[in-house]
Specification:
Distance between the termini: 44 Å
Oligomer: single chain
Organism: Actinophytocola xinjiangensis
Structural class: mainly beta
Pfam families: WD40_RLD
Protein name: RCC1-like domain-containing protein
Mean pLDDT: 93
CATH architecture of one domain: Sandwich
CATH topology of one domain: Jelly Rolls
Keywords: Repeat
Number of helices: 0
């Protein structure tokens, strides 16, 4: 929507002069910031334009940089007051200014933002007055309403402009990128998704190459909210602002400069909105904001030699202050770079009304589901904005309405949102799942048991875990064939298990270490029956070992035994068929992870066996690294009155009848939950700062608990 065009009435904006844009009739009460595409048209001198809230002092920042005679646009995000007006300031010469309203942020309900790792979505060739379409069905979830793209026009054969809009709607009278013949200009674009998640792109004149880099998407279901700020300079290679150690130096070819946000951006921020300005590079180049790793293939800012130009960027943030939150990469020559902060995106914590989940421990790629991917949490933190949780089996939460939420990595589509790649630090809804009564997971695959006794899976199909026979990832749930009347499910590394109503156990997936329990190491295309088991009441699985609790309270184990985890007292590396675990009697449940195993008994005591390296079994006995630490028979832990148990990769947890949680084992990532990075706990210790807990959840990387009243 065009909200300003000085060519139609107001006239040129002179040097040191301003023009106001009144948006009170365009955006609702409660608006906190507006997004404008600001275009400068043919200034009489090299200049810059600053956008800021009307009625406030002009900040020392620039929003748009213009060469003499240039036509150039830049997307601008501006905080607004209750007056809902923006002032545009021109520094030198006289210029016309055009502003198109792209959207706004408000305190009311609306879509939230999820940043992604910048991805080159498309590279298109467009002729004069030609329209192309870009589809995003494989890159964003079904619920997405809009996408954010860095749109770059490359070397048009004539002066032109580019316009992007939702497919199915009329092309607006507006431009997103303006280019002179032969120029390379970028601009950030936020565009609503049209029919079938498709957007349209129009080129006005000449022939042009266009690159579209995906920066993120909006959806009403989850994501981060925007916190606007008056423009403030947070990075400047000319002065050392925002540089580690205050280094004053341009960014050289092939090098990256770390961005240290300091107090301007809190740790919980997941993305920053930065106006990036490149100053006088020694040769033509591009600048990329990234998180390190492989050399970036996307660009945020394109510059000719000696040019000074700006472009807005939504920069994904990781790590915590004072570590670098992002990096700025320069491709060629050397260039000074300036960044002005317009605001940041963050995920509100809490939001749970009742039946909440709390998590702590390792937080790589948002693995805690608390809204941030920064560092680790050494104390319990509420799962972001989710109520009605009845079960947690990392990285999934089952809700009372029978739907499932997922968080963390999505490398194989394990979030179940219809796309593959990246991660989510906030819980997202798994598509097409209702009537779910239990969830579990293997390493990159999720499983859900529905009330009709069927099992559904999504994510990685390694080992034919999904029964699809093609081993291709499935980012939405599919039914696992060959299973019916199932009452419980469990997941190992690449093997899954199901218990049916007759007390029979079924296994599928990988069978390298005898995980099927049928005396072979051969895989099967469909679930196979575990040998010799009937009357089973519950099942559990670790990476490569499985367990069944019998109706008489005894336990059977099979699979890998290289750490004594089968508990049958032998040195056999593999136990190919189920064997009884001596001394494990009166058992109601078995939990396990990798090499250590715990069993809950009817009298409220807990047994542990397997590898006790550095005391992770919690039986009160330390074992130094490198020693013979295998405990081959079930051994009591010094804890009583237990009603629930859980395991993680470095130890375990017990819940007693008072709602108190006890933890033991390693503490590298804060698994003990007491806020201190002590080395370990060889006996159970209390996890503090928790309300009375109702049940424990499962996670390989830390603690998960369910709380009825937060």
């Amino acid at each position: 929507m065009r909200v300003l065009d000085t060519r139609e009435g107001a006239g040129l904006v002179g040097p040191g002069r301003t023009v106001a844009v009144d948006l009170a009739s365009k955006v609702p009460t409660g608006t906190t910031a507006v997004v404008l595409n600001v275009t400068g048209v043919s200034p009489t001198a090299e200049t810059y334009v600053t956008a800021y809230p009307s009625g406030e002092a002009r900040p020392l920042a620039s929003s748009l940089n213009l060469a003499r005679g240039e036509i150039r646009a830049n997307l601008v995000t501006v905080r607004v007051t209750d007056a809902r007006a923006v002032t545009l300031y021109n520094h030198l010469g006289s210029t016309h200014l055009v502003a198109d309203l792209a959207g706004y942020y408000s305190t009311g309900d609306g879509s939230r933002f999820s940043p992604v790792v910048y991805t080159l979505r498309d590279s298109l060739e467009l002729g004069p007055r030609q329209t192309a379409t870009l589809g995003f069905g494989h890159e964003v979830p079904e619920s997405a309403t809009a996408v954010v793209l860095n749109l770059t026009g490359v070397s048009p054969t004539a002066a032109t402009f580019l316009t992007m809009w939702p497919t199915g709607a009329a092309r607006p009278v507006a431009s997103n990128v303006n280019l002179a013949a032969g120029a390379v200009n970028p601009n950030l674009v936020t565009v609503a998704l049209g029919d079938d998640h498709i957007v349209s792109l129009y080129n006005n004149a000449g022939t042009i190459t266009v690159h579209a880099d995906l920066a993120g998407f909006y959806t009403p279901e989850y994501g981060a909210v925007f916190a606007p700020r008056s423009p403030v300079r947070v990075f400047d290679t000319r002065t050392g602002v925002g540089q580690q150690g205050g280094v004053v130096a341009p960014i050289r070819a092939g090098q990256s400069a770390p961005f240290v946000a300091g107090n301007h951006v809190p740790d919980e921020a997941v993305a920053a909105v930065l106006n990036l300005t490149g100053v006088a590079p020694t040769t033509g180049t591009f600048v990329s904001a990234w998180q390190g790793g492989a050399v970036p293939q996307h660009s945020n800012l394109n510059l000719a030699a000696r040019q000074t130009a700006a472009n807005l960027a939504v920069v994904r943030l990781e790590r915590a202050n004072p570590d670098p939150r992002a990096f700025f990469y320069n491709r060629n020559g050397s260039v000074n770079l300036v960044a002005d902060l317009a605001g940041y995106f963050w995920t509100p914590t809490g939001g749970c009304v009742a039946d909440c989940a709390y998590s702590w421990g390792q937080n790589v790629d948002g693995g805690l589901g608390t809204g941030t991917s920064v560092g680790h949490s050494f104390t319990p933190t509420q799962l972001a904005d989710v109520s009605g949780v009845v079960q947690v089996a990392d990285p999934y939460a089952l809700l009372a309405d029978g739907t499932v939420r997922a968080w963390g990595r999505n490398w194989s589509g394990e979030l179940g949102i219809g796309v593959v790649g990246d991660f989510s630090a906030v819980p997202v809804r798994v598509l097409d799942l209702t009537g779910v009564v239990a969830v579990t997971s293997t390493m990159e695959t999720g499983f859900a048991l529905r009330s009709d006794g069927t099992v559904w899976g999504w994510g990685s199909a390694k080992g034919n875990l999904l029964g699809t026979d093609d081993y291709e990832p499935r980012p939405v749930p599919v039914q696992v064939p060959g299973l019916a009347n199932i009452t419980a499910i469990a997941g190992g590394h690449l093997t899954a298990y199901a218990l049916d109503a007759d007390g029979v156990v079924w296994a599928w997936g990988d069978n390298t270490n005898g995980e099927y329990g049928n005396g072979t190491d051969q895989p099967s295309a469909r679930p196979v029956r575990v040998s010799g088991l009937t009357g089973v009441t519950s099942i559990g699985a670790s990476m490569f070992t499985a367990f069944a609790v019998m109706g008489d309270g005894t336990v059977r184990a099979w699979g890998l035994n290289n750490g004594g985890q089968a508990g049958e007292g032998s040195d056999e590396t593999v136990v190919p068929t189920p064997v009884e675990v001596p001394g494990a009697t009166g058992v109601t449940r078995v939990v396990t992870d990798i090499y250590h195993v715990y069993a809950l008994r009817t009298d409220g005591t807990v047994l542990g066996w397997g590898d006790n390296d550095r005391g992770v079994l919690g039986i009160g006995v330390d074992c130094p690294w490198g020693g013979d630490c295998v405990v081959r028979v079930p051994t009591p832990l010094p804890v009583t009155g237990v009603v629930d148990i859980a395991a993680n990769s470095a130890g375990g947890y017990a819940l007693d009848g008072t709602g108190t949680v006890w933890a033991w084992g390693g503490n590298t990532f804060g698994e003990l939950g007491h806020g201190r990075l002590t080395e370990k706990a060889v006996s159970p210790v209390v996890v503090p700062n928790l309300p009375p807990v109702d049940a424990l959840g499962f996670s390989r990387s830390g603690g998960r608990v369910l709380v009825g009243a937060p």
